[in-house]
Amino acid sequence: MKTRILCIAFFTCLLLFKQNSFADNYPKNAKIDALNYAFRIQLSDNTDEIICEATIDIRYLEAGVETLRLDLINASAALENKGMTVSKVVSSDKTLQYTHEDDELLITLPKPSTQNQRVKYTIYYSGIPASGLKIAENKYGDRTFFSDNWPNKGRNWLTTIDHPYDKAKCEFIVTAPAHYQVVSNGLKVEESDLPDGNRLTHWKQSVPIAPWLYVLGAARFAVQYVDRFDGKSIETWVYQQDRDAGFYDFAEPTKKVLEFYSDYIGPFSYEKLANIQSNSVSGGMEAASAILYSENSVMGDRNERWRNVVIHEIAHQWFGNAVTEYDWDDVWLSEGFATYFTLLFIEHEYGYDAFMKGLEASKKQVDAFYEKNPDYRIVHDNLQDMNKVTSSHTYQKGSWILHMLRGVVGTDNFWKGIQSYYQKYQNLNATTDDFRREMEEASGVDLKDFFEQWLYKPGALKYKGTWQYDKKKGEIKVTLDQVQTDGSFFKMPIEIAVYGQDKQILIKTLQVNEKSNVFTIPVDTEPDKVVLDPNSWVLMDADFTKKR
Questions:
Q1: Among 202, 439, 517, 541, which is most exposed with the fewest C-beta within 10 angstroms?
Q2: What mean pLDDT is reported for the chain?
Q3: Percent of the chain with pLDDT over 70
């Protein structure tokens, strides 16, 4: 996802407030619901200034609202005179009063709202984006325009409620010189060459999505309509110079990934799936229906690294895009899920060994991050600084938590819970508590302690233990101690495998609930060896040996 940790490093709802986690500091307004944004944008080769006309369809869920607050970065000297300047706000042919200060656009309503009232507002503004929309030459020296909205940079060029809690439909009606092709979310409903040498392109996204997922790309593209999935177009958009290599790279494994997630999770939400080469991200950016990849992703060799990024970004179409975290503090519901579901597709398509390779690589990143950040929580409250919204723990440890959850509830219950969670929150928002409730309902297991210790608290699990065979009693005595020194404590089921002399395997599940634990396991003969967690279900370090 995006220009952040996993993209290259990872091998590479209902609006419910959380009970056990933390609320990020965005000024949410539960009385206001944005339904649709229509952005009319003029792009030029003569200037980096963009001219915008944004029409926003708002529903007021309660009476008494007097001001509509939107995000939009002000033009300022601090940004070298970049940023946006608003010239007018209109509703029902009436010019409205507004203030645009401190990157907030506050529109004064002519009179307080009534419940369920719907109103459209058109905001006229212009400026040079300081961020969010990259206007620059690509690696071939061609001028291009590509969005880069993650996590909250869209407000540099789009006036929105710039937070994932308020999902809305969107339209991009873009006028640009006719040598550009324009791509965006959803379906293309118009492409017309204009008498003045410009081209108008209109894209419409008919499924609500979070603002960071809005996308715009304008470049000289080579475009391939690769295939169809469930009646929807699979497309490749690459620089014209990379036509052959790009068409080859992106032809696989997109359709197989779409099929797998649709079969195992639920239906794909969007009208198309386009893989797009761009210069605004260094890894991948999972914009709904129109995924951006680094311009260096096209190599013509279908290499494993970029193949896995493609899988990861498509996984986001389900988790992050269709089911979206309500708070930034719950971003693991996006990144941890996409990371683990990448591995699940890899297991399905390329085998168990490839899956285990991915888990092992993730554990190394978890361990390295923990050494430097021992107090880090997955569901966190550090979002005064949006640069810290994600970390390798959000990705890799989040992935491992899902893997451990699957081990705790069983694979069948895991998929049952995932499907129920997706069905309930598709195209809505969800919290970690929402996810926990669905998994508890599916499995019949109380998961409060599991979620609390792995998601809401920091720490790493470390075991030290021994096993000893007692011939007279016909049993194995197992001692197992939690020896982490960071103050954390875990209650975890863990498998133990007993290998007999005839090479048969006996697997028992031990419930390790204390700092020091002793178990006995009846056996018929002296074992050759005893192995802790033989199937790698637990994120831990263990020193487990035979007692002499």
A1: 541
A2: 94
A3: 95
- pTM of the complete model beyond 0.90: yes
- C-alpha dihedral (150, 151, 152, 158), degrees to nearest 10: 30
Decide if 450 contacts 440 (C-beta within 8 A). no
Paired tokens of 183: 């791509």
Tokens of 467: 């096993």
Q: Which residues pair with 120 in a beta bridge?
A: 57
Of residues 189, 154, 164, 159, the one with CA closest to residue 174: 189
Length of the chain: 548
Alpha-carbon span 315 to 257, nearest angstrom: 8
Token pair in block for residue 233: 């177009």
- Inter-CA distances, 270 with 67, 232, 294, 422, Å: 33, 8, 22, 15
Cα-Cα-Cα-Cα torsion 57, 60, 65, 71, nearest 10 degrees, comes to -40
Has residue 399 got a pLDDT over 70? Answer: yes
H helices then E strands: how many in the chain?
11, 29
Beta carbons of 37 and 54 less than 8 angstroms apart: yes
| Cα 243 to Cα 241: distance, rounded to the nearest angstrom | 6
Start-to-end CA distance of the chain, whole Å, equals 50
